[in-house]
Protein backbone atom coordinates (compact mmCIF):
# COMPACT_ATOMS: atom_id res chain seq x y z
CA UNK A 1 0.00 0.00 0.00
CA UNK A 2 1.25 3.50 -0.85
CA UNK A 3 2.54 5.26 2.28
CA UNK A 4 0.30 8.29 1.77
CA UNK A 5 -2.79 6.05 1.56
CA UNK A 6 -1.70 4.07 4.60
CA UNK A 7 -1.30 7.27 6.64
CA UNK A 8 -4.66 8.73 5.63
CA UNK A 9 -6.46 5.41 6.17
CA UNK A 10 -4.90 5.06 9.61
CA UNK A 11 -5.97 8.57 10.62
CA UNK A 12 -9.51 7.99 9.33
CA UNK A 13 -9.67 4.76 11.34
CA UNK A 14 -8.16 5.82 14.65
CA UNK A 15 -8.38 9.61 14.49
CA UNK A 16 -4.66 10.30 14.47
CA UNK A 17 -1.24 8.91 13.58
CA UNK A 18 2.25 9.22 15.04
CA UNK A 19 5.71 8.65 13.67
CA UNK A 20 5.92 5.52 15.79
CA UNK A 21 2.73 4.20 14.15
CA UNK A 22 4.34 4.45 10.71
CA UNK A 23 7.60 2.89 11.86
CA UNK A 24 5.68 0.04 13.46
CA UNK A 25 3.49 -0.61 10.43
CA UNK A 26 6.13 -0.27 7.71
CA UNK A 27 9.57 -0.78 9.23
CA UNK A 28 10.75 2.51 7.73
CA UNK A 29 13.24 4.65 9.61
CA UNK A 30 11.92 7.24 12.04
CA UNK A 31 13.66 10.04 10.12
CA UNK A 32 12.00 9.04 6.85
CA UNK A 33 8.58 8.76 8.48
CA UNK A 34 8.96 12.21 10.05
CA UNK A 35 9.95 13.76 6.70
CA UNK A 36 6.99 12.15 4.92
CA UNK A 37 4.56 13.38 7.57
CA UNK A 38 6.03 16.88 7.37
CA UNK A 39 5.59 16.89 3.58
CA UNK A 40 1.92 15.90 3.93
CA UNK A 41 1.48 18.64 6.54
CA UNK A 42 3.12 21.21 4.20
CA UNK A 43 0.61 20.16 1.51
CA UNK A 44 -2.23 20.84 3.93
CA UNK A 45 -3.44 17.22 3.89
CA UNK A 46 -2.74 16.68 7.59
CA UNK A 47 -2.10 18.89 10.62
CA UNK A 48 0.47 18.47 13.39
CA UNK A 49 -0.97 18.46 16.92
CA UNK A 50 1.02 18.48 20.16
CA UNK A 51 4.75 18.62 20.74
CA UNK A 52 7.60 16.25 21.56
CA UNK A 53 6.34 12.85 22.75
CA UNK A 54 2.72 14.04 22.39
CA UNK A 55 3.16 14.96 18.69
CA UNK A 56 0.63 13.38 16.32
CA UNK A 57 -1.13 14.22 13.04
CA UNK A 58 -4.80 14.51 12.16
CA UNK A 59 -6.71 15.15 8.94
CA UNK A 60 -7.18 18.73 7.69
CA UNK A 61 -10.57 19.84 6.41
CA UNK A 62 -11.07 19.87 2.63
CA UNK A 63 -11.16 23.65 2.59
CA UNK A 64 -8.02 23.89 4.65
CA UNK A 65 -9.59 26.61 6.78
CA UNK A 66 -10.48 24.43 9.75
CA UNK A 67 -9.28 21.22 11.34
CA UNK A 68 -11.29 18.02 11.40
CA UNK A 69 -10.68 16.98 14.98
CA UNK A 70 -10.74 13.30 15.94
CA UNK A 71 -13.36 11.53 18.04
CA UNK A 72 -10.74 9.31 19.62
CA UNK A 73 -7.58 10.22 21.53
CA UNK A 74 -4.92 7.78 22.68
CA UNK A 75 -2.08 8.94 24.91
CA UNK A 76 0.75 7.10 26.66
CA UNK A 77 2.16 9.49 29.23
CA UNK A 78 5.09 9.42 31.61
CA UNK A 79 3.74 9.59 35.15
CA UNK A 80 5.82 12.59 36.12
CA UNK A 81 4.36 15.99 36.98
CA UNK A 82 1.06 14.96 35.43
CA UNK A 83 -2.08 16.94 36.26
CA UNK A 84 -5.38 15.31 35.36
CA UNK A 85 -7.16 18.60 34.66
CA UNK A 86 -4.46 19.68 32.20
CA UNK A 87 -4.62 16.34 30.40
CA UNK A 88 -8.39 16.70 30.01
CA UNK A 89 -8.06 20.29 28.81
CA UNK A 90 -5.56 19.18 26.16
CA UNK A 91 -7.89 16.41 25.01
CA UNK A 92 -10.74 18.89 24.63
CA UNK A 93 -8.53 21.24 22.60
CA UNK A 94 -7.29 18.48 20.30
CA UNK A 95 -10.48 16.51 19.75
CA UNK A 96 -14.19 16.83 18.98
CA UNK A 97 -15.15 14.27 21.63
CA UNK A 98 -17.08 16.80 23.71
CA UNK A 99 -18.48 18.81 20.81
CA UNK A 100 -22.28 18.91 20.92
CA UNK A 101 -22.41 16.76 24.06
CA UNK A 102 -25.13 17.63 26.58
CA UNK A 103 -23.95 19.50 29.66
CA UNK A 104 -24.96 16.74 32.07
CA UNK A 105 -22.95 14.16 30.10
CA UNK A 106 -19.92 16.44 29.82
CA UNK A 107 -19.85 17.19 33.54
CA UNK A 108 -20.11 13.50 34.44
CA UNK A 109 -17.30 12.50 32.08
CA UNK A 110 -15.16 15.41 33.32
CA UNK A 111 -15.57 14.21 36.89
CA UNK A 112 -15.10 10.48 36.24
CA UNK A 113 -12.13 10.92 33.90
CA UNK A 114 -10.19 13.22 36.23
CA UNK A 115 -10.94 11.05 39.28
CA UNK A 116 -9.78 7.83 37.60
CA UNK A 117 -6.70 9.45 36.07
CA UNK A 118 -5.82 11.00 39.43
CA UNK A 119 -6.01 7.57 41.05
CA UNK A 120 -3.50 6.25 38.52
CA UNK A 121 -1.23 9.26 39.00
CA UNK A 122 -1.32 9.23 42.79
CA UNK A 123 -1.60 5.55 43.72
CA UNK A 124 -0.26 3.29 40.97
CA UNK A 125 3.48 4.01 41.22
CA UNK A 126 3.45 3.26 37.49
CA UNK A 127 6.08 4.77 35.22
CA UNK A 128 3.57 5.27 32.40
CA UNK A 129 -0.18 5.74 32.11
CA UNK A 130 -2.03 4.65 28.99
CA UNK A 131 -5.36 6.33 28.30
CA UNK A 132 -7.95 6.22 25.54
CA UNK A 133 -11.05 8.39 25.35
CA UNK A 134 -13.56 8.40 22.52
CA UNK A 135 -17.07 9.29 21.43
CA UNK A 136 -19.08 6.72 19.49
CA UNK A 137 -22.53 7.05 17.96
CA UNK A 138 -24.09 6.05 21.28
CA UNK A 139 -21.72 6.87 24.14
CA UNK A 140 -18.55 8.40 25.52
CA UNK A 141 -16.07 5.92 26.92
CA UNK A 142 -12.56 6.00 28.30
CA UNK A 143 -9.87 3.64 29.52
CA UNK A 144 -7.16 4.47 32.04
CA UNK A 145 -4.49 1.78 32.42
CA UNK A 146 -1.26 1.62 34.37
CA UNK A 147 1.46 -0.95 35.02
CA UNK A 148 1.71 -0.29 38.72
CA UNK A 149 1.03 -2.14 41.95
CA UNK A 150 -2.63 -2.83 41.17
CA UNK A 151 -5.60 -1.42 43.06
CA UNK A 152 -6.57 -4.67 44.80
CA UNK A 153 -2.99 -5.49 45.79
CA UNK A 154 -2.56 -1.94 47.09
CA UNK A 155 -5.66 -2.22 49.28
CA UNK A 156 -4.52 -5.64 50.54
CA UNK A 157 -1.13 -4.24 51.52
CA UNK A 158 -2.34 -1.04 53.17
CA UNK A 159 -5.29 -2.65 54.97
CA UNK A 160 -3.38 -5.87 55.78
CA UNK A 161 -5.93 -8.06 54.04
CA UNK A 162 -5.27 -11.60 52.85
CA UNK A 163 -7.20 -12.05 49.61
CA UNK A 164 -8.31 -10.11 46.54
CA UNK A 165 -11.95 -10.74 47.50
CA UNK A 166 -11.36 -9.04 50.86
CA UNK A 167 -9.83 -6.06 49.03
CA UNK A 168 -12.82 -5.85 46.68
CA UNK A 169 -15.24 -5.94 49.62
CA UNK A 170 -13.26 -3.15 51.26
CA UNK A 171 -13.38 -1.13 48.03
CA UNK A 172 -17.14 -1.60 47.75
CA UNK A 173 -17.66 0.13 51.08
CA UNK A 174 -17.37 3.33 49.11
CA UNK A 175 -15.47 5.73 51.34
CA UNK A 176 -12.35 3.68 51.89
CA UNK A 177 -8.99 5.01 50.68
CA UNK A 178 -5.37 3.94 50.95
CA UNK A 179 -4.30 7.58 51.31
CA UNK A 180 -6.73 9.17 53.82
CA UNK A 181 -4.65 12.32 54.26
CA UNK A 182 -4.86 13.13 50.56
CA UNK A 183 -8.14 11.61 49.40
CA UNK A 184 -11.68 11.18 50.64
CA UNK A 185 -12.01 7.81 48.89
CA UNK A 186 -15.21 8.86 47.16
CA UNK A 187 -13.94 8.94 43.57
CA UNK A 188 -14.51 5.31 42.66
CA UNK A 189 -17.78 5.21 44.60
CA UNK A 190 -19.33 8.18 42.78
CA UNK A 191 -17.89 7.12 39.42
CA UNK A 192 -19.33 3.62 39.85
CA UNK A 193 -22.75 5.13 40.56
CA UNK A 194 -22.87 7.61 37.69
CA UNK A 195 -21.43 5.39 34.92
CA UNK A 196 -23.61 3.16 32.79
CA UNK A 197 -20.81 0.65 33.14
CA UNK A 198 -17.54 0.75 35.08
CA UNK A 199 -15.03 -2.11 34.98
CA UNK A 200 -11.96 -2.38 37.19
CA UNK A 201 -9.40 -5.00 36.17
CA UNK A 202 -6.43 -5.83 38.35
CA UNK A 203 -4.42 -8.95 39.14
CA UNK A 204 -6.79 -11.90 38.51
CA UNK A 205 -10.14 -10.21 39.11
CA UNK A 206 -12.54 -8.01 37.17
CA UNK A 207 -15.03 -5.93 39.18
CA UNK A 208 -18.01 -4.82 37.11
CA UNK A 209 -20.51 -2.11 38.02
CA UNK A 210 -23.45 -2.53 35.63
CA UNK A 211 -25.91 0.28 36.31
CA UNK A 212 -28.03 -0.57 33.28
CA UNK A 213 -28.60 -4.08 34.60
CA UNK A 214 -28.43 -2.73 38.17
CA UNK A 215 -25.87 -5.28 39.29
CA UNK A 216 -22.34 -5.59 40.62
CA UNK A 217 -20.35 -8.73 39.98
CA UNK A 218 -16.86 -10.18 39.93
CA UNK A 219 -15.20 -12.33 37.30
CA UNK A 220 -11.91 -14.21 37.21
CA UNK A 221 -9.56 -13.06 34.46
CA UNK A 222 -6.08 -13.82 33.24
CA UNK A 223 -3.67 -12.06 35.55
CA UNK A 224 -2.86 -8.49 34.52
CA UNK A 225 -0.27 -6.11 35.89
CA UNK A 226 -1.42 -2.83 37.33
CA UNK A 227 -4.97 -1.54 37.02
CA UNK A 228 -7.23 -0.95 34.05
CA UNK A 229 -10.39 1.16 34.34
CA UNK A 230 -13.08 1.12 31.63
CA UNK A 231 -15.89 3.69 31.80
CA UNK A 232 -18.96 3.99 29.55
CA UNK A 233 -21.79 6.55 29.61
CA UNK A 234 -24.58 6.80 27.03
CA UNK A 235 -24.98 10.10 25.20
CA UNK A 236 -28.71 10.08 25.95
CA UNK A 237 -28.30 9.53 29.68
CA UNK A 238 -30.46 11.75 31.88
CA UNK A 239 -28.17 11.41 34.89
CA UNK A 240 -26.94 14.56 36.56
CA UNK A 241 -23.86 14.74 38.72
CA UNK A 242 -25.53 17.19 41.11
CA UNK A 243 -28.38 14.73 41.72
CA UNK A 244 -25.91 12.01 42.64
CA UNK A 245 -24.03 14.25 45.06
CA UNK A 246 -27.29 15.43 46.62
CA UNK A 247 -28.41 11.83 47.10
CA UNK A 248 -25.25 10.77 48.90
CA UNK A 249 -24.36 13.89 50.87
CA UNK A 250 -26.01 15.84 53.64
CA UNK A 251 -26.45 19.60 53.98
CA UNK A 252 -22.85 20.06 55.07
CA UNK A 253 -21.67 18.12 51.98
CA UNK A 254 -20.17 15.33 54.02
CA UNK A 255 -20.30 11.82 52.65
CA UNK A 256 -22.62 10.53 55.37
CA UNK A 257 -26.14 10.02 54.04
CA UNK A 258 -25.31 7.06 51.80
CA UNK A 259 -26.86 3.67 52.39
CA UNK A 260 -23.59 1.92 51.65
CA UNK A 261 -23.93 -1.61 50.31
CA UNK A 262 -21.64 -4.37 51.55
CA UNK A 263 -22.00 -7.51 49.48
CA UNK A 264 -20.68 -10.68 51.09
CA UNK A 265 -19.17 -12.94 48.46
CA UNK A 266 -19.25 -16.68 49.00
CA UNK A 267 -16.03 -17.98 47.48
CA UNK A 268 -14.76 -20.62 49.90
CA UNK A 269 -15.39 -18.16 52.73
CA UNK A 270 -17.45 -18.94 55.83
CA UNK A 271 -18.45 -15.85 57.78
CA UNK A 272 -17.98 -17.20 61.29
CA UNK A 273 -15.37 -15.17 63.16
CA UNK A 274 -15.29 -11.83 64.93
CA UNK A 275 -12.15 -10.85 63.03
CA UNK A 276 -14.02 -11.25 59.73
CA UNK A 277 -16.82 -9.05 61.06
CA UNK A 278 -14.40 -6.38 62.26
CA UNK A 279 -12.65 -6.35 58.88
CA UNK A 280 -15.91 -5.94 56.98
CA UNK A 281 -17.12 -3.18 59.31
CA UNK A 282 -13.84 -1.24 59.40
CA UNK A 283 -14.54 2.37 58.47
CA UNK A 284 -18.31 1.97 58.20
CA UNK A 285 -18.96 4.12 61.27
CA UNK A 286 -18.83 7.03 58.80
CA UNK A 287 -22.17 6.01 57.31
CA UNK A 288 -25.73 6.37 58.57
CA UNK A 289 -27.14 3.27 56.87
CA UNK A 290 -25.35 0.02 56.02
CA UNK A 291 -26.95 -2.49 53.70
CA UNK A 292 -25.60 -6.02 54.16
CA UNK A 293 -26.35 -8.31 51.23
CA UNK A 294 -26.25 -12.02 52.22
CA UNK A 295 -27.16 -13.34 48.77
CA UNK A 296 -25.82 -16.92 48.31
CA UNK A 297 -24.50 -17.02 51.90
CA UNK A 298 -25.69 -20.31 53.40
CA UNK A 299 -25.06 -19.48 57.04
CA UNK A 300 -23.05 -17.25 59.38
CA UNK A 301 -21.43 -17.97 62.72
CA UNK A 302 -22.68 -16.83 66.11
CA UNK A 303 -19.49 -14.86 66.75
CA UNK A 304 -19.77 -13.08 63.38
CA UNK A 305 -23.42 -12.14 63.98
CA UNK A 306 -22.77 -11.08 67.58
CA UNK A 307 -19.89 -8.81 66.58
CA UNK A 308 -21.96 -7.10 63.88
CA UNK A 309 -25.46 -6.91 65.33
CA UNK A 310 -24.75 -6.59 69.06
CA UNK A 311 -21.24 -5.37 69.87
CA UNK A 312 -20.64 -3.09 66.85
CA UNK A 313 -24.26 -1.90 66.80
CA UNK A 314 -24.18 -1.02 70.50
CA UNK A 315 -21.08 1.09 69.88
CA UNK A 316 -22.68 2.85 66.89
CA UNK A 317 -26.31 3.36 67.86
CA UNK A 318 -26.89 6.03 65.19
CA UNK A 319 -26.05 3.61 62.37
CA UNK A 320 -28.89 1.56 60.87
CA UNK A 321 -28.38 -1.93 59.41
CA UNK A 322 -30.50 -3.09 56.46
CA UNK A 323 -30.31 -6.84 55.83
CA UNK A 324 -30.96 -8.10 52.30
CA UNK A 325 -31.26 -11.59 50.81
CA UNK A 326 -30.67 -13.44 54.08
CA UNK A 327 -31.96 -17.02 54.24
CA UNK A 328 -33.61 -18.61 57.26
CA UNK A 329 -30.35 -19.88 58.76
CA UNK A 330 -28.70 -16.49 58.51
CA UNK A 331 -31.74 -14.69 59.92
CA UNK A 332 -31.82 -16.93 63.00
CA UNK A 333 -28.29 -15.88 63.92
CA UNK A 334 -29.01 -12.20 63.16
CA UNK A 335 -32.21 -12.10 65.23
CA UNK A 336 -30.48 -13.83 68.12
CA UNK A 337 -27.74 -11.21 68.17
CA UNK A 338 -30.25 -8.39 67.79
CA UNK A 339 -32.32 -9.69 70.70
CA UNK A 340 -29.24 -9.71 72.89
CA UNK A 341 -28.50 -6.13 71.77
CA UNK A 342 -31.95 -4.88 72.75
CA UNK A 343 -31.64 -6.40 76.23
CA UNK A 344 -28.16 -5.15 77.00
- SSE run: HHHEEEHHEEHHHEEHEHEHEH
CATH architecture of the largest domain: 2-Layer Sandwich
The span between the termini is: 82 Å
Number of E-state strands:
10
Sequence of strands across the biggest β-sheet: 3-4-5-7-6
Low-confidence stretches: 176-184
Counted by DSSP, the helix tally is: 12
Calculate the mean pLDDT score and round it: 84
- Percentage beta strand: 15-25%
Looking at CATH, the homologous superfamily of the largest domain is Histidine kinase-like ATPase, C-terminal domain
Tell me about the largest β-sheet: 5 strands, antiparallel
| CATH topology grouping of the largest domain | Heat Shock Protein 90
Radius of gyration: 24 Å
How many separate domains? 3
* CATH level 1 name of the largest domain: Alpha Beta
Report the structural category.
alpha+beta
Helical content stands at 40-55%
Structural shape: elongated
Describe the protein.
With 344 residues, the chain is of the alpha+beta class. It has three domains: 68 residues, Orthogonal Bundle (Arc Repressor Mutant, subunit A); 179 residues, Histidine kinase-like ATPase, C-terminal domain (Heat Shock Protein 90), CATH 3.30.565.10; 87 residues, no CATH class. The protein is built from twelve helices and ten strands. The strands form three sheets. It has a five-stranded antiparallel sheet. Helix 11 links the parallel strand 9 and strand 10. The longest helix has 21 residues. About 3% of the residues have low confidence.
